[in-house]
Amino acid sequence: MRAAQRFACRPQLWGHVIPHHVSQLKRGLRKLREEGFRHIFELRTPEEVDAITEIHRDPLYNNKKQETGPLDIIGDIHGCYDELVELLTEMGYTYDGETWAHPQGRKAVFAGDLVDRGPNTPEVLKLVMGMVAAGNAYCVPGNHDIKLKRWLDGKNVQPTHGLQESIDQLNLKTPEFREQVRKFLEGLISHYVFDEGKLVVAHAGLKENMQGRGSGAVREFCLYGETTGEIDEFGLPVRHNWAEEYKGKAMVVYGHTPVPRAQWLNNTIDIDTGCVFGGSLTALRYPERGIVSVKAARVYCEPARPLGYVKDAAENLSLQQQNDDVLDIADVTGKQIVETALANNVTIREENAVAALEVMSRFAINPKWLIYLPPTMSPSKTSVMEDYLEFPAEAFEYYKTAGVNRVVCQEKHMGSRAVVIVGRNEEAIGKAFGIKGEGIGTIYTRTGRAFFNDKATEQALLARVNDALIAWGFYERFNTDWVCLDTELMPWSAKAQALLQTQYAAVGAAATHALADVTAALAQLAQRDANGEALLAEYRERENEAKQFVSAYQQYCWPVNGLDGIKLAPFHIMASESKLWTSENHEWHMEEIKKICAADPQILMATPYRIVDLDNAEDVQQATAWWMNLTGKGGEGMVVKPYNFIERDGKGTIQPAIKIRGREYLRIIYGPEYTAPENLIRLKSRGLNAKRGMAMREFALGIEGLQRFTNKEPLRRVHQCVFGILAMESEAVDPRL
Amino acid sequence: MLLTITTSRFPADNLGYLLHKHPAKIQSADISAGKAHIFYPEVSAEKCTAALLLDIDPVGLVRSSGPKGNDFALEQYVNDRPYVASSFMSAAIAKAYSSAMNGRCKDKPELVDVAMPFTVKLSVLSVRGGEAVLRALFEPLGYTINAQQHQLDPLYPDWGQSRYFTVELSHTITLQRLLSHLYVLIPVCDNDKHYWINAEEVEKLLAKGSGWLEAHPAKEMIVRRYLKDQRSLAGQALSVLLSKDEAEVEEAAVEAPEEVTEPKVRIHDLRLQAAKDELLLAGAKRVADLGCGECRLLKLLLAERQFEFILGMDVSIRVLQIANNRLKIERMPDKQRERIQLIQGSLTYRDKRLEGFDGAALVEVIEHLDPPRLAALERAVFEYAKPGTVVVTTPNAEYNVLFENHPEGKMRHNDHRFEWTRKEFEAWATDLAVKYNYNVLFKAVGEEDAEVGALSQMAVFSLQKDNLKND
């Protein structure tokens, strides 16, 4: 009406807009009813609209977000009263003569299918109704419960699939009881959303986009799940496993489909362990995630499909691990935003993901191994000293400014970064990583490629590491069967042979031979003409620098034959079973690693380090002298880390490490002649912000990935982090930093 | 870095007149990346040596690149450019000895056309292709060559030889001709250039090469390398020098991927043809080329009316861009453009975009995956994408023994992670078919040998019919 008045001044619109609008509204209303909404308010006149004084919003019935638990969710009971009592008792619930309650105020949540097939449906109903009435429990309906209600409603239903047992048992009870049951079942809500939306309970589970909604389709899904319309070899409908594709944040707990044991899959869990078929009755404790089961006293009903029948089940792999065999491309391509604990949301740009997809697909190892990629590391700010590009003072200053007064200086090994995952045996790897037949571990590079082209060498080295871990009793001490170590593998020439030959040795060869001839020609000139002296001196200096360049890279090359000559220097214990070790400080890491290395000093190398109190001038001075000494002998330099693995300042997490590279080492980065004053002065202008930002985001992603892995989250969630690091590495940042 | 030119023709110090550089002075000339010094280490009537010494600024070389500079690939600080004779040396020759190169000599014009005994020394010259290339370039022009190749690192003799040579070239020749040879052939040896090549470069080459390049037996290589990587320019220049047919052959040779041992008979065309035929035979309407590469199969598929929709997928965005350019998709009429789509994707990930196809081809794809990653491909294709028909081809490893000069156990391509015998392939495919309810047939592709089978092998999977019903 009001619209009509508005349009009155524009008659050309009046013609079709409003009738169109009206007809669409009417069609929409009809649809609403078809979708199964129970409450539809229609306002047909302007007066009706004007009569409204206030809109009062009722939360949906399924909204129990304020209920934070703790809760105990109980799977399909099917009239197994004795097992139910046993389970409640086991969990600490007690019967006070009227109803069951938990002394700590825990509440039960019944996931539906209370009735049919089993020996004592009425008693189960009585117990559940009593607990719900007393406010000690919630209950969602199962398909069997709803079918029983329809019988109670007097509808014509087939007494199949165990309904007959319920009918027979209920017929022995009073009509009043039957009416109570009918009313109880009628009042059940399709599903509940608990604890700020973190937990959803529905009989057959629920997809993310249906959670907290109310419609006929939602109720249908909650009761029956999703079926494909096909029939399997046992004459039962083929169910579409929505949980395989589930990516929602809420944990979904459900029953409906009997499984041999309750297993997590993508943060969902089926807790119907087929009690009535002779399996067990299972409860999930929330938020603890503990599982409590009681065995069925006997087989009450023969299942149509053998319990635990899974087509082509992969041996010994968990549901999640089987599901993780194939990742979905949609989870990594396009623009991705990854939530991390250390740096909030990290955005991965589409163009970087494109590059990472190619590298990941063509060169990376099995993504099940890739639980962590090491972050890039920023150098210190450019030194203010005339002769140096990098010097310890700037790194110390960085941490001091950030409010950290205790740092750890570690010698920087000149090798190649390598992530080492090693398990006690192949079985341990299968259990933790879901990988079969790929050995007792893996060694991979910063970009997720196999470190060794030759599998036998890799496994031989891992066997040595494993022996050292066993010898020291690492597995027992750390209560684990595997470990992930962040390491440096030497010599550099073992991995970077091609780079060394095509770039470093080539430049060295060209420079030394050319400059030898140049200085000879200039010497001849200078003999004849004193004006040639200046040029001769200049090129003699260059010749000298070329020689220093050659000895700089030669430091990091030595021959390797099989394992002979290989040195592995671990510097972080990243993770082990259910545990992320970034909570421990770097001194702890260094000391623990020292003990492992002591078991096989021929191959394993403990990293020399020192702890520096930045407020103590003598400490700082000694650390600087230490660096001078290390780099004077041709060492690469050192890495300065805050004492604690993860340190924050007012603005957030700070750089986890800063490298200070030696003056000679930097020749192989900035070229033989970089130390010439006219070169050094120009090289000193270099921007670190991009590199620092990248180091920070990669660090946050790396830790997040490991955290998710140790939390046993789906591989998809771990892979997103690792993929993100790889994508970031494709960003254009000065490669010399 | 250093070029010396020595003559012993009496009076040798005439070289100063010819080069327009006074033997008593040390002179400098600016070149793009720094300076060149000109000086005479030795001057007498018996022997005179002129030296051209590069003084390249290594930091400037990196720092000046950018939008305004030359955005070439030599951006690393650790770089041989300051130490070798390269296109920088050519530029320095043109700058420092321009009069001599143009055949001018103010004071002694009669010397310009006189062939004199010259010895040229280059410290150091980078030669892609080794001494053979060096000889192929200079010997036909009459030079005597004394070349010393340098080890990469004397401390590690097993690293082998570097591509750097100290080279002495001797010939009796005019100075102008000598300089034009050096100007063209130094960058040809190096096979790299410090600046972008444009059309002018063709004229420069033709001018500097006039009188000797036409008859040089290695002229194809000289032109191709001089106009590095600029295929159309190379073609343009060649077509001036050669008949048109030859030019086309040359271009094709440039295009051919390196390190492929398979015979030139277009085995790949046979595979593509076979894959297309199988998809046609299966009656497929929506088809996908998984690992489409540069689109050769897509082109074949587009020509068939039976295929209503064609999807090309590859993991490499670079290759997809090439495919896109070759197919000229944006220039297609609407109806045709709607029939085809190119996407970046990977066969080791499950991909919803691949669902609902009648047919899919994986031509020479599986052997590019590490064997442990095959399991993911199997599930992504056969369990999730589930096309009605899947055509898979892969090399037949048994056939490799028939290749000439093919070491035993070597793969046909650098990126092949495995090559299977017929037995291995059939075992893999049969297991797969059983697991995912497909029927499978095997066919040979390409020339067949009674003993070792065909060059390539193909498996055609078809989804069992009762698995298709959906009600």
TrEMBL record, chain B:
Its EC number is 2.1.1.386. Residues 1-241 form the Hen1 N-terminal domain. SUPFAM superfamilies: S-adenosyl-L-methionine-dependent methyltransferases (SSF53335). Coiled coil: none annotated. GO terms for biological process: regulatory ncRNA-mediated gene silencing; RNA methylation. Residues 289-390 form the Methyltransferase type domain. Signal peptide: none annotated. Its cofactor is Mg(2+). One of its GO terms (molecular function) is small RNA 2'-O-methyltransferase activity. It catalyses: small RNA 3'-end nucleotide + S-adenosyl-L-methionine = small RNA 3'-end 2'-O-methylnucleotide + S-adenosyl-L-homocysteine + H(+). Keywords: Magnesium, Metal-binding, Methyltransferase, RNA-binding, RNA-mediated gene silencing, S-adenosyl-L-methionine, Transferase. It comes from the Bacteria. Belongs to the methyltransferase superfamily. HEN1 family. This is Small RNA 2'-O-methyltransferase. It comes from Mucilaginibacter pedocola. The lineage of its organism: Bacteria, Pseudomonadati, Bacteroidota, Sphingobacteriia, Sphingobacteriales.
